[in-house]
Structure formats: structure tokens, C-alpha cells
Design goal:
By secondary structure, the chain is α/β, with parallel strands linked by helices. It has helices spanning 23-31, 67-72, 84-95, 114-124, 146-160, 206-209, 228-232; strands at residues 12-17, 35-41, 76-78, 103-108, 133-137, 182-188, 191-196. Helix 4 (114-124) runs parallel beside helix 5 (146-160).
Length: 234
């Protein structure tokens, strides 16, 4: 993110999934002087039982001394970062404004649950402008995140090298909404960065923005099945 930390860079939008107590968000605001920084946090929704769509474990976000300021600025958004309908509301009402700068960076540092991490990619990656990046943190071998590492990543890595040439070995895309927008994937210990190519951002329908059935089960993508290439070329 170094180039975005310069004070002479063009204005852009930054989104963090997982505000928690805002320590990271405060740092991003300081590090990205020309960034319009947004963050999503579920803990600041109405207090109450989860069965009623509320939050029973306390409002971590309000511990931040600028909590009310961020709410008043419409930069802190209280809701479920894995709920496509809520994400669409944030996007359309707070971020996709006529005067808004382009979305360039999304960082998922939220619940570290595989379904949430995958949903972040499917919803936000198409909305990022060319050559922007999406970062997913904490992809370590823990039970909550394992399926993102062992099921999602192999499929999108396979798609990255998709050929689609009928003269070559037959191939099928696992994630057809992501592949046309993907330039590269860079993974280091416990973190992966997905880079957008030069294709303009896309407004997908809510149905297209939802995590598909195969996202965390690569056995549901035909081209990931063991022996698929041999069977197709006999």
C-alpha cells in the first residue's frame, strides 16, 4: 500500500472489514492521507440476542475515542460484513456517491471465518477499480479459516492460470465472476493479496455477488476433480 500513503496521490476509497476497537482504522487514516477510509463493524449494532439479529457481546467500537466522529462522518458502518444485502446498502448509500473517489483498497480483518472471508472477495473485488487490491488477513491453519485456505484458494489460483483455448486441454472456470478481473495473487504467511487487472469495475447483481456453492468446496468445481483432465482427453 506504499504508493497510496503519499500525500500527492489521487484521492481514493479504502474499506476495512472489522473495525473492532478502531486501533487499526486509526492507523490507516493516518497512513493514507488522501484516502476516504470506511470500516464495517458488527459489534456496534443494537444490543441483544443474535437470534434476533442483534449483538450480545458488547460494543467494542465505542471504546475508540473518535467513535461518534466516525459515525457522524458516515465512515464507520455498523452491520454484518458478511451480509450481502447490508453490504449493498453500505455501497449504494455511503460509498457509491457521485462525488466519491474510486475504491482502491479493501482489507478483510473481520471475523476470520472462511465463509465471511470468501464473501468479502465475491462482493468487493468486482467493485475495486483497476490495479486496486483486496487483502485477506489471518489465513492461518485454524478451524475457522481453514476452508478459505484449503478450498477457496486452490480454485482461484487455478482460475488465475485459466486458458480457455479449445486447442489446449479443456478447462472450466471455478469463479467466472472473479476471473475476468483478476491480475495476480500474492500470498505470504497468513495473508493473501488479490490484485485487480485493467478491466473496469463491475456492478454485479446481488445474486452474482453472493458466494457460490463451490466457494468452500472445490469438489463442486468440475475442473478441480481428481482425474478430470485425463478423463477429458482420453
Amino acid at each position: 500500500m506504499g504508493p497510496y500513503s503519499r500525500d500527492d496521490t489521487d484521492p481514493f476509497q479504502f474499506l476495512e472489514i472489522g473495525f473492532y476497537n478502531g486501533a487499526g482504522y486509526d492507523t490507516y487514516r493516518e497512513f493514507l492521507p488522501n484516502g476516504e477510509c470506511h470500516s464495517i463493524e458488527i459489534a456496534c449494532i443494537e444490543k441483544g440476542p443474535r437470534s434476533e439479529g442483534k449483538w450480545p457481546w458488547g460494543n467494542f467500537a465505542e471504546k475508540n475515542k473518535r467513535y461518534q466522529q466516525y459515525l457522524d462522518e458516515d465512515r464507520l458502518h455498523c452491520g454484518d460484513g458478511s451480509d450481502v444485502n447490508y453490504l449493498d446498502e453500505v455501497w449504494r448509500n455511503s460509498m457509491k456517491r457521485p462525488d466519491a473517489p474510486p475504491l482502491k483498497i479493501v482489507v478483510d480483518d473481520g471475523a476470520h471465518l472462511a465463509p465471511h472471508m470468501a464473501q468479502t472477495v465475491f462482493f468487493w473485488f468486482p467493485k475495486i477499480e483497476p490495479r486496486g487490491i483486496l487483502i485477506v488477513e489471518d489465513i492461518q491453519p485454524i478451524s475457522e479459516a481453514n476452508e478459505f485456505r484449503t478450498q477457496f484458494l486452490p480454485q482461484i489460483m487455478k482460475d488465475l492460470h485459466y486458458c480457455g483455448d479449445p486447442k489446449q486441454l479443456p478447462d472450466d472456470l471455478c469463479f467466472p465472476t472473479l476471473f475476468p478481473l483478476l491480475a495476480s495473487i500474492h500470498c505470504e504467511m497468513h495473508i493473501c493479496i488479490f490484485e485487480r487487472n485493467d478491466t473496469p469495475s463491475k456492478e454485479l447483481s446481488l445474486a452474482e455477488s453472493k458466494m457460490p456453492p463451490n466457494a468452500l468446496d472445490m469438489s463442486k468445481c468440475k475442473s478441480m476433480l481428481s482425474g478430470n483432465w485425463q478423463r477429458q482427453n482420453r
